[in-house]
């Protein structure tokens, strides 16, 4: 018998950017569904009309797209489905699993005050729960679900284990307000059921909600999904992630120059592991990822580890893919797009740029030599390498280069001859040559730069500096 199709969902509220924790939740859902040939759905939980904005929805979609997480079908707007949510509330009423409650706010508050005074539970117990419909007044009412009063509600959670809540801790939750609008707790369950969601993978801050949402599943006779409540991400100090820890939005990581593949790899490792593997490809992630590998303890954001993983991905990436990442990075940070010659130069020099670059800005700094145009303006450190003595050495180097065959061995030999003639080490030739060619004190090897730039451009830049 074939297994039912796996369907997961990511359901953000569009009240701001895509949080790094939300990005990881989306990734876990995407990996679980895609790795099993299932579907990954997107639902925008925009029922809070006062705080939800189209700009925030756009930012979330943009963040997911940058992360490379594609979803199936159109994103579902929760707000657009309120008629369906209300219909389910009334169905629960018809089944006797919910009831009309006419209690006013003042009556509820009076109940709670009396309970506090008597040392009883302040969970509201409505006098309308088992009232005869013939006694109903002609007044506004809410619809409440009938929560069990005795025994326990059990959530079998794949990550957290067996979670038990005493039923005397559960109130008769409102599912439909007196103005006919559904509450979030109802909307989530109806949407998950109607969308065919089989696995609810979300932050463990929703764990308590699961017990209340189970009331709706039970009332409607619907099968519960598989629950997986994943731990939140903490800062390096072990405290809940906040602005003081640095970047919180996914788009900030793009603007810092981390490639999307590195970010996927790093986020997957936050709270999930596969043996001792640190760096892995999308194909490996999709093959290895399982909910059972998610840890219970909160994961810690660690920028050193992110830098290490990012550097490994940059070194292993195809050159074309890396240039595409750079295009996205430049656009995200409002910088000028690459010109056609710059793009060609970058591709030609990738072999000597990728090693030891942790981020795209690192790589672009190393690539300055091929992105800059003559005359190359040296920065402060490079300018110190260009004194009268070193300029004289560069003047001597150019005739040797005019006649050299343009291979690495020949170029090194030419530089070595000039160094020997001046009674200095090779570094005393290479350092001013680096300043002349790159305008930077840090760059790829001088001889790699010469090979990429070619004879004419190399000699022209050396002559500029010597003059």
Share of helix among residues? 40-55%
Separate helix tally: 19
Mean pLDDT: 94
- The end-to-end span amounts to 81 Å
CATH topology of the domain at 81-230: Rossmann fold
- Percentage of β-strand residues: 5-15%
Low-confidence stretches: none
CATH homologous group name of the domain at 81-230: HUPs
Structural class from helices and strands? mainly alpha
Q: Order of strands side by side in the largest beta sheet?
A: 1-2-3
**Number of distinct beta strands:** 12
Q: Rounded to an integer, what's the Rg over CA atoms?
A: 32 Å
Describe this protein's structure:
It is a single chain. The protein has 467 residues and is mainly α. Among the domains are: 81-230, HUPs (Rossmann fold), CATH 3.40.50.620; 380-466, Orthogonal Bundle (Arc Repressor Mutant, subunit A), CATH 1.10.10. Helix content is 48%, strand content 10%. It has 19 helices and 12 strands. It has helices spanning 20-34, 54-67, 82-95, 105-118, 184-194, 207-220, 250-255, 260-269, 282-288, 303-316, 319-332, 340-349, 360-366, 368-371, 380-384, 388-403, 408-421, 427-438, 446-466, and strands at 7-10, 39-44, 76-77, 98-101, 142-145, 152-157, 161-166, 174-176, 199-203, 226-230, 233-234, 299-300. Strands 1-2-3 form a 3-stranded parallel beta sheet, covered by helices on one side. The chain has a 3-stranded antiparallel beta sheet with strand order 4-5-8. Helix 6 links the parallel strand 9 (199-203) and strand 10 (226-230). Helix 3 crosses helix 5 (184-194) and helix 16 (388-403) crosses helix 17 (408-421). The longest helix is centred in the C-terminal third of the chain and has 21 residues, at 446-466. The radius of gyration is 32 Å and the shape is elongated.
